[in-house]
Amino acid sequence: MKVSKWFFVIMIVSFLKPQISFGVSEISQEFLKFAKKSEVFDWMVGVRRKIHENPELGYQEFETSKVIREELDKLGISYKHPIAVTGVVGFLGSGEPPFVALRADMDALSIQEMVEWKHKSKVPGKMHACGHDGHVTMLLGAAKILKSHSHLLKGTVVLVFQPAEEGGGGAKQVVDSGSLENVKAIFGLHVFPQPPLGQVFSKSGAILAGSGVFEAVITGKGGHAAIPHHSIDPILAASNVVVSLQHLVSRETDPLDSQVVTVAKFHGGGAFNVIPDSVTIGGTFRAFSKQSFMQLKQRIEEVIVGQASVHRCNASVTFGSKDKPFFPATINHEGLHKFFQEIAGDVLGVDNVKEMLPLTGAEDFSFYQEIIPGDFSCKVPWSNSGFGETSTC
User: Fold this and answer.
1) 142 in the same domain as 9
2) Which of 21, 150, 253, 357 to pair with 384, CA 20 to 30 A apart?
3) 190 marked ligand binding residue
4) Could you give the CA distance from residue 393 to residue 109 in angstroms, rounded to a whole number?
5) Are residues 121 and 103 in the same domain?
6) What is the mean pLDDT of the chain?
7) How many domains does the chain have?
8) Residue 227: inside a domain, yes or no?
9) Which of the 8 DSSP states describes residue 336?
């Protein structure tokens, strides 16, 4: 976390470097010196633990939002609230262009924290398993450092504390609120457990897949298991649907165009000897381009309806919802990615700036990138050898 907070800051100030008289290395050393102050580090640890102990799900981050606003008030940073129910958007600098945004997501996950330690989640069934407590703390740390060096800013930094990244599409709600008008560029990061401390991983172009969810109800005719010929078995139909959906990737997709279809929900019947009237299945699909994504969506519906019909069943298919919108692919802007590499190389050393392969996970940071040049290129290490690591994002 100590590296992450000032790395964020150096990127922002360096983004304005044509307008200031300091070199990147000079700025780096100044911010690193400030970030190493024990009072700054201890403050950040305290904030992070407070948020970690009190996790809140998407659009329910009321106490987290309160903590953020209290800290911004102490720093003398103005903000707008509420944005997208619980979100906070702060403003730091001259109030004039250029406007550059930094984003942190705030929500937790519906997961029970199993680790026994003093600062574990105090809320049963909820925890910050994806590190968003760290993201919020990093952005507050960046705000503190930037405020202390506001004389270096020749523009405005927009601090985006966003709700509901975990499937709720909070970024889209922030965009729709109009809070990011006139923003020239936006930067985001995500903690990542695997890399060694001090390394960052990134790439230009598509870095994370677009994703969507689907659900289908396959309806037949129920009956007794002893006389299946008197029924129309939706379980058999649904089973063939699951198998056929996998052919979309193995036989209809270019092997060089990564796509994923996963059926993760299969509900039907409640007795050992009764064929149900209907079965509900659901899952997710992912692709790295809008064209591939929409083609996959079309074929998923065709396969489900067609296979149901082959087995004398009917099928209705729905995609997404207000609570689970489609996420576009996260595609890093080429120019901003090059800028990131230059700054990361100066701060961490070029050997610690690594190229990464695309991941089929999804991120709603992509909604910002649809309207603003953006870079989601800083996957900062987040691990603790004392507790081990898990992958829950």
Assistant:
1) yes
2) 357
3) yes
4) 9
5) yes
6) 91
7) 2
8) yes
9) H
CA 265 vs. chain centroid, Å, equals: 22
Q: Indicate the SS3 state at residue 177.
A: coil
Does residue 387 lie in a domain region? no
Residue 261: count other Cβ atoms within 10 Å of its Cβ.
Answer: 22
Q: How far is CA 31 from CA 17, 186, 326, 338, in A?
A: 15, 21, 39, 22
The answer to whether residue 392 is domain-embedded is: no
Amino acid making up residue 105: D
Q: Could you tell me the CATH number of the domain that includes residue 181?
A: 3.40.630.10
Q: What is the CATH number of the domain that holds 313?
A: 3.30.70.360
Contact 275, 235 (CB under 8 A): yes
Are 174 and 214 in a shared domain?
no
240: domain range? 210-319
Report which of residues 102 and 31 the model is more confident about. 102
Cα 106 to Cα 61: distance, rounded to the nearest angstrom: 7
- The pair of three-digit structure tokens given for residue 380, joined into one six-digit string: 């900062």
In a domain, 389, yes or no: no
Q: Which pTM was predicted?
A: 0.89
* Span 290-324, pLDDT tens digits: 999 999 999 999 999 999 999 999 999 999 987 88
Is 132 annotated in a binding site? The answer is: yes
Are 264 and 187 in contact by the 8 Å Cβ rule? The answer is: no
DSSP state of 227: -
Check: CB of residue 209 under 8 Å from CB of residue 357.
no
- Note whether 341 and 202 are within 8 A (CB): yes
The answer to whether residues 275 and 179 touch, using CB atoms and an 8 Å cutoff, is no
CA 156/CA 158 separation, integer angstroms: 6
